[in-house]
Amino acid sequence: MIIDLSLILVMGVLYAVGVYLVLARTLTRVLLGLMLISNATNLLIVHAGGPALLPTFYEKDIPADQYTDPLPQALTLTAIVIGAAMVAFVLGMIYRGWVLARADEIQDDDEDLRVATSDHFDTEEDTPIEDDESEFEGDEESRKLQEEELQDEQAHLHAGQEKLRRAQTSTDNPDELINLAYKEHNLAEKESATRGKEN
Q: Are residues 100 and 148 in the same domain?
């Protein structure tokens, strides 16, 4: 393989200038840097394919080592298309930034600065969680107490519903009927909640 030192030098200069421009805070310079890096990569792929030989058209009389490798050329064409799409995307970002702020400089985000300067210990996420036993864990006495409490709540709810039914049958006032219906609705919700605890 023949190494072209001048081509390698050109690639090194393109990479160096491209990286320098990408690290800038202006989107226009970032775009130019990406274009230089893309072109340097294309030169690297073409140079890695070896010297220019015969075109890749098959003929019986020509040995295989006399043909040019078509793979680097195909990769270079693909890289050119991807680079063009990237340039179009960054140009859209530059245009949008110019329309909104009349500048293409990358601004510091206040929230990013706050997170970067804050303490790494987060009280909400890093505080150890206390062991919390569920209603199904524990000894037999605690389970019996929970069952008795649920039974008491259910008995209390049934008694309240009976009182409401008696009050509804004994009154004809619309306002009182509305209040009684509202209370009955609340009791029904409490009863469904106690059934959920029981299950």
A: no
The range of the structural domain enclosing residue 15 comes to 5-107
- Is 126 among the domain residues? no
CA distance linking residue 99 with residue 89, whole number of Å: 16
One domain, residues 94 and 155: no
**Which residues have a Cβ under 8 Å from the Cβ of 105 and sit 6 or more positions away?**
25, 26, 27
Q: What is the DSSP string of 126-165?
A: HSPPPP---TTSS-HHHHHHHHHHHHHHHHHHHHHHHHHH
Q: Read off the pTM.
A: 0.52
* Structural domain total, the chain: 2
**Contact indicator for 73, 55 with CB cutoff of 8 Å:** no
Higher pLDDT, 61 or 20: 20
